[in-house]
Amino acid sequence: MKSKIVCFIFCCIFPLCTYSSHYTVGTEDIQYYPHYGKLNDQTPEFSGYAKEVLDQFSQQQKLSFSYKFYPIKRLYQAFEKDQAVDFKYPDNPEWNYSTSSTKKITYSDPLGSFIDGTVVLKKNKHFTLNHIKKIGTIKGFTPQAYLDRIQNGEVKLFEFSNTEKLLKALSHRYVDAIYVNIDVVNHQMRIRNVPTTFIKTLPYQTGHYHFSTIKHPELIEKLNAFLNKNAMLLENLKEKYKLSSF
Fold first, then answer.
1. Rounded to an integer, what distance in angstroms lies between the CA atom of residue 147 and that of residue 9?
2. What's the CA gap between 29 and 90, in Å, rounded?
3. Are 68 and 24 in contact (CB under 8 A)?
4. Structure confidence by residue, pLDDT tens digits, 122-172
5. Which CATH entry fits the domain spanning 21-112+207-240: 3.40.190.10, 1.10.10.10, 3.60.21.10, 3.40.50.10190?
6. Cβ–Cβ under 8 Å, residues 24 and 70
7. Helical axes 231-240 vs 49-61, angle rounded to 10°
8. Does residue 243 contact residue 156 with C-beta atoms inside 8 Å?
9. pTM summary value
10. How many CA atoms does the CB half-sphere of 200 hold within 13 Å?
11. How far is CA 112 from the centre of its chain?
12. Do domains 21-112+207-240 and 114-206 have the same CATH topology?
């Protein structure tokens, strides 16, 4: 009888539903809302579309995630070389950030899609490629669509620590255009009332954001099953966060 009482008390103090599995997700130390990252300097927690998807998944699986921010280039080392985190988000097998790695990285199915493109002030919506001599982007990002022109000196690249500074550089005409995720810049534009436009005839890039791991490929399988079974949930969240599709 005493053992039953002890067991009852233990279960009351430590409920069976307590999440026993906890994982750390390495992510980019940037304001990249509504996709992921920090909303602003006042709310520095990981937030946005990806956070809500991963919250739904973790609740279903009775596990928990915490998010650790790194500068973009430092994140690669923390994930791959140091293995200081269990997962990385965002990631993409085509980013190919390490050519010397012998570790197997497992990628999830796409959590979301992105369009990174050339954004100018609305009054410059007539701009062609020849107008773009100075382009801005987030520090640590590679504007792949302009890489050849940057390397041969036709375009000069300027890097900024966040989207707010990127927009200021554009509005003050310090750069001719910025190369950025169009959902991120649209969100900032609504807040800061900077009239910008995405020019589809200028270089842009599309792709997908994936969840990746070296340590826990079995959890990626569970995440993929969750994504496949909850297609409507993902669509509703994309609509909620005003995400573009291609």
1. 64
2. 11
3. yes
4. 999 999 999 999 999 999 888 988 999 999 999 999 999 888 899 999 999
5. 3.40.190.10
6. no
7. 150
8. no
9. 0.86
10. 1
11. 9
12. yes
CATH of domain 114-206: 3.40.190.10
Alpha helices in 62-181 (DSSP H): 72-76, 147-151, 163-171
Cα–Cα nearest to 23, from 209, 210, 211, 216: 216
For the segment 187-236, what is each residue's pLDDT rounded down to a tens digit?
Answer: 988 888 889 999 999 999 999 999 999 999 999 999 999 999 999 999 99
Residues in Cβ contact with 9 at an 8 Å cutoff, skipping those fewer than 6 apart: none
Spatial separation of the C-alpha atoms in residues 211 and 62, rounded to whole Å: 18
DSSP 8-state symbol, 245: -
The label of the residue with tokens 């050339």 reads 118
Report the phi/psi class of residue 93: left, alpha or beta, with left for phi > 0 and alpha for psi in -120 to 50. Answer: alpha
Give the residue ranges of DSSP H helices in the chain: 2-13, 49-61, 72-76, 147-151, 163-171, 182-192, 217-229, 231-240
Domains of the chain by residue range: 21-112+207-240, 114-206
Residue 85 CB-half CA count within 13 A? 25
Q: Read off the tokens for 244.
A: 């573009």
Measured between alpha carbons, how far is 95 from 141 in angstroms, rounded to an integer? 11
Cis before 15 (ω within 30): no
